[in-house]
Write a structure and sequence with these properties.
Largest interface: A-B, 36 and 36 residues
Largest sheet of chain A: 12 strands, mixed
Strand content of chain A: 25-35%
Radius of gyration of chain B: 21 Å
Number of helices of chain A: 12
Oligomer: heterodimer
Strand content of chain B: 35-45%
Largest sheet of chain B: 10 strands, mixed
Helix content of chain B: 10-25%
Shape of chain A: globular
Number of helices of chain B: 10
Shape of chain B: globular
Number of strands of chain B: 21
Structural class of chain A: alpha/beta
Number of domains of chain B: 1
Distance between the termini of chain A: 19 Å
Number of strands of chain A: 24
Distance between the termini of chain B: 34 Å
Number of domains of chain A: 1
Strand order of the largest sheet of chain B: 4-3-7-9-11-13-15-17-19-21
Helix content of chain A: 25-40%
């Protein structure tokens, strides 16, 4: 087994992801959220009237909506301390050479250009509020695939954007969806035409550089009939003593017979509030998969949802959460079955270490008329230390007598016997623990593209360093 | 029967005076009254109540039933109670009609050993100390309905089982409600160290009735090594709104076997909670419910492990047909001190009509790591293979369906060693399955 060469995770994070650049933004709004800030963002982007009005309406909804009455403590999230929009540069590159040097250096250090060459069909890179790089391999472009940042899409594909924007997740959905709708910037717009199968993943990389910044990307993905695509997002930020805030909205439409997969590897620094709304509408015989990895952030609240609205729609949600001291991962998934012969599964694995807290929160809803719906939910939690915490909050609502719905959860600690066995074979205790944890998440990790699986395993290994014994 | 309609602090004074209660109890009632006046009613926005709507329940619309001093002989008891008495093989009996303890019977040998069975009001004359020590200890007044009960309970049974005293034949306490009123009762069971007792509380009524509200609480206080088998069987007529909380406090090595069986009422919300407060404490919590017509049956459970080496095992099974709605929500809560705890929670629902609805929310909150904790929930229709098998043997479909529903529910009953009670519940299920 490879020896982890770095002894302390925070040190590693600082080296690998936690650095920051002293860039001079070309524009930023004042601290706090007002109508003027929303107008300034829209003005800066030179947006059409409908979008400006959409933002202002969403702002009103945001101001009206109360904070969620359930779940983790959000009382220390101060909306007045946040900068809602920072434009790091004036131009966006289609080749890395066009990206300003200091920003390019960031993505070089994160290894994005190298990965793009190796195994991706397209890459978008967002730095603070704006997308600084976006490129799609030519072969896909020729087939009519659209992969641009959402701001560009508003300008270049107004009809398509207007048809879908805010339809899967309207601003009224929840307070943070309203906030995102008011101040969104960046994110990806993906359209895969009928029957086109994009074989390599598309990736978006989200980087927050500035302290006390809010990043609000808006991603819209439309996978047309019979098409296929896989989208990956990754996230990191420098470690600051003050909190930052990320609140994305991801809307996905999977049309008849299409297949799509959305993978998140979230490794925000431990000062990030990460409150994301992700939802897919899945049409007849289509299939959508959420692969959700939550390793970083101070607090994450994220429950990827699939709405199965036509017969034969299927969805799978797989999630891994890792919570160490100072972290609360409140994650899970929702499956809404609203048509006959729809089905889905949720598999959730969480690991709590130190004083970390991992909570599974989920909903399975079978509407009347969704005949022969089938859902299975499995949640496994692993607790490493005596002060580690885990919770399970599954909501199951069934209105249909032909539905088969099952939920099962287990909580366990690292197995002493397994550790002892591995030690008797010459492994050190924390190596043994890391190996067992890797085995625990294996069913989900194996679904990741190889490079990500390697990265995930390495992160787990580091997290497990010195955690037992 | 006497009744009074407006809720007020004066009513609290009146109830306490009528029952000739000691000063300390009146003070507690008044503190509870303050809380009641301050607290809002739960709404659908209250997380624990999100599936049960109280807005149409006449919680303050009916007159509170007050004691009148009525007594009845065994043969004058209501027919429903008499037929239960003939069948139930009980060792002791207490019957409440409305707010009056009308009938009481406890064998000589239990009395000789110091076992007490009477109303709380009566027992205060002879056993004030254990009552003062235990009353409100498990259910206080920090929530609206509990504060309502604490301030205004008018009647209820008290069972005291002295140290080391054991008995296996159940004591049966019947609450007979005639409807049209608000009934507030409170049960207190004090089981001293290494005692062993069996207790069945039943809520029964004539049928049909006028709209009625029952607001009851059962406090079970189990000292070290005490064993209690407790059953709550609710077969009230349609028209009743039944709100009940049972909460047990288990000291070291104490053991509770609880059964909550709910069949009646227009709307019932039944809560069963165990607090495992000493190592070796063990709580078995069984639940059974069957809803038909427009019934709304809601169960809430709590397995609260406050200490290490504690064990809880919960199984709630339900069936729902017609346009009925059942809710099960339950929480396993393991404190940091609850190392080596073993907790299990299972909810199984059978859906028998496309207009019926089931909500199931089994929850875990775990703050210790050396634990075994598992839960599961399933909701499904009758198994088609099993149905097919029975039909292939010549059983008509509707009969086969009934057989399978019964099998689903009887499964819980097989874990109860009280044969007469099992037979009684099987009969209720049998009747309900044909409705």
């Amino acid at each position: 087994m490879a020896q982890p060469d770095i002894l302390n995770l925070d040190q590693d994070y600082t080296q690998k992801y936690g650095f920051h650049d002293d860039i001079q933004p070309v524009f930023q709004t004042e601290r706090g959220l007002t109508r003027r800030v929303v107008e300034a963002i829209s003005h800066q982007k030179n947006e059409p009237k409908w979008m400006r009005e959409f933002r202002l309406q969403a702002y009103e909804i945001f101001m009206r909506k109360p904070m969620p009455a359930w779940g983790p403590d959000l009382s220390r999230l101060d909306f007045d301390e946040i900068v809602y929009y920072i434009k790091p540069t004036d131009r966006q590159g289609r080749s890395w050479d066009e990206v300003p040097d200091d920003i390019k250096r960031t993505f070089d250090r994160l290894g994005i250009p190298e990965w793009e060459r190796k195994f991706l069909a397209g890459v978008g890179a967002q730095y603070d509020s704006e997308v600084v790089y976006h490129n799609l391999a030519k072969q896909w472009e020729e087939k009519g695939v659209i992969f641009v940042d959402t701001d560009t899409a508003v300008r270049e594909y107004p009809d398509l954007v207007q048809e879908y924007f805010g339809t899967v997740i309207p601003p009224t959905d929840n307070k943070f969806a309203a906030l995102n709708s008011a101040v969104w910037s960046g994110g990806s717009f993906v359209y895969v035409p009928k029957g086109v199968k994009v074989e390599l993943p598309l990736q978006a990389y989200f980087r927050v550089n500035t302290a006390e910044l809010g990043q609000f990307e808006r991603t819209i993905i439309i996978v047309d009939e019979g098409a296929e695509m896989h989208y990956i997002e990754g996230c990191t930020a420098p470690t600051y003593s003050t909190d930052s805030f990320h609140s994305g909205v991801i809307e996905i439409v999977v049309k008849k017979g299409a297949r799509s997969r959305y993978t998140t590897i979230q490794n925000w620094s431990h000062n990030m509030y990460n409150l994301v709304t992700q939802r897919a509408v899945v049409h007849g015989d289509a299939y959508h998969e959420w692969l959700d990895g939550n390793l970083g952030s101070k607090l994450t609240m994220k429950y990827p949802s699939s709405y199965l609205i036509e017969p034969g729609a299927r969805s799978e949600i797989m999630s891994i959460a890792f919570a160490s001291t100072g972290q609360h991962q409140d994650t899970g998934g929702k499956l809404i079955l609203a048509a006959p012969h729809t089905s889905g599964t949720i598999v959730s694995k969480s690991i709590s270490k130190g004083q970390g807290r991992a909570s599974y929160r989920g909903l399975v809803k079978v509407y009347e008329g969704a005949k022969h719906a089938r859902v299975n939910v499995e949640c496994d939690a692993l607790l490493i230390n005596p002060e580690s915490r885990t919770d399970t909050y599954p909501y199951i609502e069934i209105e249909e007598d032909t539905a088969h719905v099952g939920h099962e959860a287990t909580v366990s600690k690292l197995n002493d016997e397994q550790i002892f066995y591995l030690q008797s074979r010459g492994l050190k205790e924390d190596e043994a623990a890391a190996l067992i944890v890797r085995g625990f998440i294996e069913p989900i990790a194996k679904e990741l593209p190889l490079e990500y699986a390697v990265e995930l395993n390495r992160l787990i290994e580091l997290e497990m360093e010195g955690s037992v014994g | 029967m006497q009744a009074t309609s407006t809720l007020s602090r004066d009513l609290v004074l009146e109830v306490s005076q009528k029952l000739q209660e000691p000063r300390w109890l009146l003070e507690k009632r008044l503190a509870a009254w303050e809380a009641f006046a301050r607290l809002p009613y739960p709404t659908l926005k209250t997380e624990e109540w999100r599936y049960t709507n109280l807005s149409k329940v006449p919680l303050e619309g009916l007159a509170l039933e007050l004691p009148t001093g009525q007594k009845l002989s065994r043969q004058d008891l209501p027919a429903q109670v008499r037929s239960r008495l003939e069948q139930a093989e009980l060792s002791g009996v207490a019957v409440f009609v409305g707010a009056d303890l009308v009938y009481l019977e406890l064998p000589e040998e239990l009395q000789a050993q110091g076992v007490v069975l009477t109303s709380i009001a009566q027992a205060l004359q002879t056993h004030e100390a254990p009552i003062q020590n235990a009353l409100f200890r498990t259910v206080g007044w920090n929530e609206k309905l509990q504060a309502y009960n604490a301030a205004l309970f008018t009647h209820g049974a008290f069972l005291f089982v002295p140290k080391g005293v054991e008995f296996d034949a159940p004591i049966g306490v019947f609450n007979y409600l005639e409807g049209g009123r608000l009934s507030i009762g409170r049960t207190l069971i004090v089981a001293e160290p290494n005692s062993k007792a069996v207790y069945i509380e039943e809520y029964v009524s004539p049928t049909p009735v006028h709209e009625g509200v029952n607001l009851s609480v059962s406090e079970l206080v189990l000292a070290q090594g005490a064993q209690l088998r407790h059953s709550h069987v609710q077969t009230l007529a349609l028209g009743f709104y039944h709100f009940h909380r049972t909460r047990a406090l288990l000291a070291r090595d104490a053991r509770l076997n609880d059964l909550t069986a709910t069949f009646g009422g227009t709307l019932a919300r039944t809560e069963t909670q165990s607090e495992l407060a000493g190592p070796g404490a063990d709580s078995e919590m069984l639940g059974l419910y069957f809803a038909h017509g427009e019934q709304h049956l809601d169960h809430y459970t709590l397995q609260h492990h406050a200490e290490h080496h504690t064990k809880s095992d919960l199984l709630y099974k339900g069936a729902v047909k017609d346009r009925a709605h059942t809710v099960y929500s339950g929480l396993i809560k393991l404190e940091e001190a609850a190392q080596k705890a073993d907790a299990y929670q299972s909810n199984r629902n059978l859906l028998l009509s496309s207009e019926a609805r089931v909500d199931s929310i089994p929850q875990l909150e775990i703050a210790a790591n050396e634990v075994r904790c598992t839960h599961g929930s399933t909701t499904a229709p009758v198994d088609e293979m099993q149905l097919f098998y029975l039909m292939s043997r010549g059983v008509p479909k509707h009969v086969a369906q009934q057989v399978l529903v019964k099998a689903h529910l009887y499964d819980v009953l097989t874990r109860i060693p009280l044969l007469p009670l099992r037979e009684h519940i099987e009969r209720i299920i049998e009747e309900k399955v044909r409705l």
